[in-house]
Amino acid sequence: MKRIHYTLIIIIGLLALPSGVLRAGVIRGHIDKQDTTVSPAAYAMAYVAECRTGVTADEHGDFLLRLPAQYDGKKVLVEYSLIGYTSLEKEWEVVPEGTPAPVDSVLLDFSPIMLAASYVTADGKDPAEYILEQVWKTADKNRKKVKNYSAHVEYTLATHELPMVAHILPGFTVMMAQIAAGFMGIGPVMNYSIKHDDLFATVSLDRQVKNGARKDSNHQILEMTPGLPKNVQNNVKSMFGKIDLYGLLYGGQNAWGRKFTRRSDFVLTGSYNYGNYIVDVLYWKDPNSDATATIHVLEDNWSILKIQVGRQEEAVQCEARDIGGGIFLPVSFVMKPALTRIKVADIPMFIERANAEIKDKNTRKRAIKLLQEYQARGEDFNPYIAARFNVRYGE
Question: Whose CB among 15, 67, 80, 253 lies 3.0–4.6 Å from 71's, allowing a Cys bridge?
């Protein structure tokens, strides 16, 4: 599981990509969560069931939800959700894109999970083993559904402070990242990201699959900041095909899924109500590292509602919803590699290194200012790559 987990995190993190479609109506919002304190609900989801559209918030809890033109001026019911917190619904007015949009601010309360005091299986199996066994039995049927379907895909790519990596971290670290990216087919994006300021891009496409053969249309970059070279644009557009989002939920026939079925990997930690379903929560932690995985499984239906994989501040989050005839699948990936982390106690040393080794005056000034800001806040410095996908599956 450890090997599979790291591979998934590295591939997903480096494959950070563009998404988002140009729509005429928007809702701009901010999501907080509350337990012992109030803090931003990073990567929470805002979802409008009426038009089967949703988006994941960024690491600060902020989001911009684009809706079809016919919703301009109308009020829609937005559902806000985050693993471990009580979902909340709120009605909000859609405004035309390009006009000032009021910020929809919501607060999600912590949702305690019932401890699984007892869980008796018919054959006496370990509960977690039994639950996962049922999931993989139904996974075969779910995989067959995606042999014939249509989908609208939107994805976004954002990078943060990656250029600093090339200036203040050892050159060997940077070189290894470039080599790994090259093997995975994302060399142009990686090379650009470590040499230029933060980038953001949005991409959309329509996909039709018949008997397993796929055909994409309307594949375009809708927005990019700054303007990207042609080879980087082409690399960005090619990335969605490299990630099997449905396979993140149902991978029983691959190594990822087989690891999940091992009794020693997962334990049943609790259950809670979700509509008319009872949801079981399964948890796994690598005894040799801080890698963890949590799966939320709908009982009786035996389908995965949510899956979350994390290692420190790296995270993969995936949520599926039954929308009648298809699956709405928002997925967010965040990568903050431990390799590139500069602890706050070491920042003065790296400021000295930046002063001595960065030749370009503007770059040197920017690097030092950035490090001083993190030092003043008492925070570690760690650049990241974030990718967010919204996939709406149809028949």
Answer: 67
User: Rounded distance, CA 67 to CA 83, Å?
Assistant: 24
Segments making up each domain of the chain, as ranges: 2-340+380-393, 344-377
Confidence at residue 338, expressed as pLDDT on a 0 to 100 scale: 64
| pLDDT for the residue numbered 3 | 36
C-alpha span between 181 and 177 (Å, rounded): 6
Q: Which of 382, 289, 288 lies closest to 338, judged by CA?
A: 382
Spatial separation of the C-alpha atoms in residues 128 and 240, rounded to whole Å: 32
Would you say 224 and 200 are in contact if contact means Cβ atoms under 8 Å apart? yes
Nearest partner of 215 among 226, 201, 205, 230, judged by Cα: 205
The amino acid at 262: R
Residue with tokens 């557009």: 237
Predicted confidence band of residue 191 (pLDDT cuts 50, 70, 90): confident
pLDDT of amino acid 217: 92
Q: 265-286: per-residue pLDDT in tens?
A: 788 888 877 767 788 888 888 7
Q: Do 186 and 14 form a contact (C-beta atoms < 8 A)?
A: yes
Contact 374, 347 (CB under 8 A): yes
- Beta-carbon neighbour count of residue 92 at 10 Å? 19
pLDDT of residue 214: 83
Handedness of CA 287, 293, 298, 301 (dihedral sign): negative
Q: What number is the average pLDDT over the span 324-351?
A: 73
Amino acid (one-letter) located at 234: N
Could you count the other beta carbons within 10 Å of the beta carbon of residue 317?
A: 24
At 279 the pLDDT is 85
Give pLDDT, residue 1.
Answer: 33
Top-confidence range, 214-228, 243-257, 284-298: 214-228
Output b/e per residue, 245-277; b: 16+ Cβ within 10 A: bbbbbbbbeeebbebbbeeebbbbeebbeeeee
Distance between CA 39 and CA 32 in Å, rounded? 6
Contacts of 45 (CB under 8 A, 6+ apart): 54, 55, 56, 57, 80, 81, 82, 319, 330
What are the C-alpha distances in Å from 377 to residues 33, 117, 160, 336? 22, 43, 17, 18
Query: Residue 180 and residue 333: Cα distance in Å, rounded?
Result: 18
d(CA 177, CA 189): 12
Question: pTM, whole model, 2 decimals?
Answer: 0.68
Q: Residue 394: phi, psi to the nearest 5?
A: -120, -170
